[in-house]
Design goal:
Layout lengths: L5 E9 L2 E9 L8 E7 L4 E6 L6 E7 L2 E6 L3 E6 L4 E7 L5 E6 L5 E6 L4 E6 L4 E6 L9 E4 L5 E5 L3 E6 L5 E6 L14 E6 L4 E6 L3 E6 L4 E7 L5 E6 L5 E6 L3 E9 L7 E10 L5 E6 L3 E6 L3 E6 L14 E4 L6 E4 L4 E5 L3 E6 L2 E2 L8 E2 L1 E3 L2 E7 L11 E4 L4 E4 L7 E4 L4 E4 L4 H4 L14 E2 L6 E5 L4 E5 L8 E6 L5 E6 L4 E5 L4 E6 L6 E6 L6 E5 L8 H9 L3 H4 L7 E5 L2 E8 L4 E5 L14 H5 L3 H6 L4 E4 L4 E7 L5 E6 L1 H6 L13
Parallel strand pairs: 2-54
Antiparallel strand pairs: 1-2, 1-33, 3-4, 5-6, 6-7, 7-8, 9-10, 10-11, 11-12, 13-14, 14-15, 15-16, 17-18, 18-19, 19-20, 21-22, 22-23, 23-24, 25-26, 26-27, 27-28, 29-30, 30-31, 31-35, 32-34, 36-37, 37-38, 38-39, 40-41, 41-42, 43-44, 44-45, 45-46, 47-48, 49-50, 50-51, 51-52, 53-54
Length: 665
């Protein structure tokens, strides 16, 4: 049976409890590759765009605090960063767009088109406006970069690089790119990426596997570095222009530094210094910050690789970080009904969990009595992406809904397993719905900015709850099981708590410098549990003790963030957390582990003698023997649902490297 259409029941014993575990591996979701990336050093924001069928974005750039993308549909898009959606699109009328770049002055935007033109757009307050074309070339413009002065533009093409005067539009230099040793004369070399530095040095990466250094003043080649047999797809330079990184189709990132040569300290040259291997396939996007290299591509992972010469060793900043996409939950679980709702880009699937026979020892696979069953598939009539933040399943109340700019609400009939579209409330939502956040069980919706729209599902009424600072979009939201409390977290690290009985803002949590990655309200004591990107949790008596002692070094060195928090209803002291590759049960009644205490995986701990297991007993109980975790939930029957994504298995079957066949036909 294929991995992504299987189910398994396992009895797992942890020191504090024993769970029957549903290992769900039939969610055959395949995330799309990272196609473009742009880092804004002023605001320290990183923008990442995945590929979408029919709407492929090839390039992304910041212009001040405004974000633009361009793609093979021939359009330029500016984004509304408050409401996290496209603001408008402009047709460039040059065919597919391969590259986009802005000048450092923030006044002009240049795009490279299929028809051989570099088109310049003027930046207005609310829109952009076409200004002029540079001299038209015979081949498509693949890559672009402005000189920091804003007077010159370097353009990568087939077999050459052109330097344009931005004012006159004329090409001033033509730099011919070598095909490489042994390459066929008929094979064209694609200049995939280009960097234009202040001293007029041009650095290019091409399909012959070369990183080349050019003198932009004279148009001459200074040095060639052969880094791969395949393609160099992306380049990024540091702010001080002393370092450049190149991403290849072999999944490697190669760093070059401008260092003093052996001849003398005044004579510097670009030297290859490091090679990082953190990806299995093509690296399509790169960002070079002051302390790290951020990379992403075909394997859908965003990797933050610290530059150890720029950070202190053995600190959180020196640890490797990985973010798997999509980074928001695609699985909703109905704890009472035992149902799972899976979110795909263009449809939803509702599944009923299977059942097992008998009992077993910890670690045993239990026989399946009833296999999982797909009950419903709900597909949009209009081909449109369902956003990862637009979904909620509240089967206990009989509701489920995918939300977008056009709001949809469905009633789920549990007995006959059917859905009915509820149109009575749709008119009420028509002018208030938003794509920024989900409907919370049972009755809340976030409209634009971070106001909260409370909806009574049995009445045609809506009311707003507005925090003190509604300027930032909400990215996390949770509601207490009794329906009294609602907590929201926005992209400015602010957390607001609302009283839904009084329909008022109750309080604002003290702002912490790191952005929250998961929030939840405890079902019995109403404590708000928050996990931040730096792995910290705060402010109860237990968490203050945790802060005083400090988290275990191995916990701090984990490379993926916590994405969900849950609780054990039979034991209020238990907190369940999970990230991409492990889940952890924290028992607040047990002592915290000391810095030198081993954080054993539970399967390893089980193999130790009983006396040694007791000696290693502490609050953190970790299970790591899982694939890519999408969801960990505890059902009302005390069984644990673990949904795993088989992405790594699928990628391992692909040839490596996979060369990008990206040209429009």
């Amino acid at each position: 049976m294929r991995m992504f259409s299987s189910v398994e029941f396992t009895a797992k014993k942890v020191k504090m409890a024993e769970f029957k575990v549903h290992r769900v591996r039939f969610f055959d979701y395949m995330p799309t590759a990272i196609r473009a990336m742009a880092f804004n050093p002023r605001t320290e924001r990183l923008a990442v765009i995945p590929g979408q069928d029919g709407r492929a974005a090839e390039a992304l750039c910041w212009l001040g605090q405004r974000l633009f993308s361009a793609g093979l549909n021939g359009e330029i898009t500016e984004y509304d960063l408050e409401n996290l959606r496209p603001r408008y699109t402009v047709e460039a009328y040059g065919g597919p767009i391969w590259s986009i770049s802005s000048n450092s002055q923030g006044t002009l935007l240049a795009v490279g088109c299929e028809d051989g033109t570099v088109k310049i757009f003027e930046i207005l307050e609310e829109r952009i406006q076409f200004q002029r074309n540079l001299d038209r070339q015979k081949g498509r413009i693949i890559s672009l970069c402005w000189h920091p002065s804003g007077t010159l533009i370097a353009a990568g093409m087939m077999d050459m690089i052109k330097i344009f005067d931005a004012e006159s539009g004329r090409a001033t230099h033509r730099l011919l790119v070598e095909r490489g040793v042994g390459a066929s004369k008929s094979r064209e070399v694609v200049v995939w990426s280009i960097a234009f530095l202040s001293d007029h040095t041009i650095i290019s990466g091409d399909s012959a596997g070369k990183v080349q250094v050019w003198d932009g003043l004279t148009g001459t080649l200074v040095r060639t570095h052969l880094v791969t047999k395949w393609d160099v797809l992306a380049l990024s330079s540091s702010q001080d222009e002393s370092s450049v990184v190149a991403g290849t189709s072999e999944g490697t990132v190669v760093q070059f530094q401008f260092l003093s040569s052996n001849v003398g300290p005044q004579d510097k040259e670009w030297v290859r210094t490091r090679t990082f291997k953190n990806h299995s396939h093509d690296v399509r996007g790169l960002a070079h910050t002051d302390t790290a290299v951020v990379s992403g591509g075909m394997d859908t992972q965003l990797v933050v690789r610290p530059l150890l010469d720029k950070v202190e060793k053995n600190t959180q900043e020196s640890a490797l970080r990985k973010i798997a996409f999509p980074h928001r939950s695609l699985v909703c679980c109905a704890k009472k009904a035992g149902l799972l709702l899976f979110q795909f880009p263009d449809h939803l699937e509702l599944w009923r969990l299977g059942e097992s026979n008998g009992h077993g020892s910890p670690g045993d696979s239990l026989p399946v009595k009833r296999k999982p069953e797909k009950l419903i598939q709900l597909k949009r009539k209009v081909a449109r992406i369902i956003s990862a933040a637009e979904l909620c399943l509240h089967v206990e109340a009989g509701w489920r809904t995918p939300l977008s700019t056009s709001f949809r609400l469905y009633r789920l009939q549990n007995n006959t397993i059917s859905v009915t579209k509820v149109s009575r409330l749709l008119r009420t939502f028509a002018r208030r719905s938003s794509s920024a956040s989900p409907l919370t069980p049972p009755n809340s919706l976030l409209p634009p900015r971070s106001s909260v729209l409370v909806v009574a599902l049995n009445q045609s009424e809506c009311k707003y709850l507005t925090p003190s600072d509604p300027s930032q979009p909400v990215h996390l939201l949770c509601v207490s099981e009794d329906g009294k409390w609602l907590a929201t977290a926005n992209t400015d690290c602010q957390i607001h708590v609302f009283n839904l009985d009084k329909l008022k803002l109750h309080c604002t949590v003290p702002v912490y410098s790191s952005c929250p990655t998961a929030i939840a309200i405890h079902p019995t004591n109403s404590n708000l549990v928050v996990v931040h990107a730096d792995q910290q949790k705060e402010y109860t008596e237990w968490s203050r003790k945790l802060q005083k002692q400090g988290l275990h070094p191995l916990w701090m060195e984990r490379d993926t963030p916590i994405t969900h928090i849950a609780f054990n209803p039979k034991n209020p002291a238990h907190i369940i957390l999970h990230d991409t590759f492990m889940f952890c049960i924290i028992d607040q009644n047990l002592p915290l582990p000391e810095a030198k205490t081993p954080l054993y995986n539970q399967m390893t701990l089980r193999s130790l003698p009983e006396s040694e297991r007791i000696m290693h007993s502490h609050a953190f109980k970790i299970c790591k023997n899982f694939q890519h975790l999408l969801c960990v939930r505890l059902l009302e029957d005390h069984s644990l649902v673990v949904v795993e994504r088989p992405l790594l298995d699928i990628l391992s079957q692909l040839p490596a490297p996979v060369r990008q066949k990206r040209f429009a036909t």
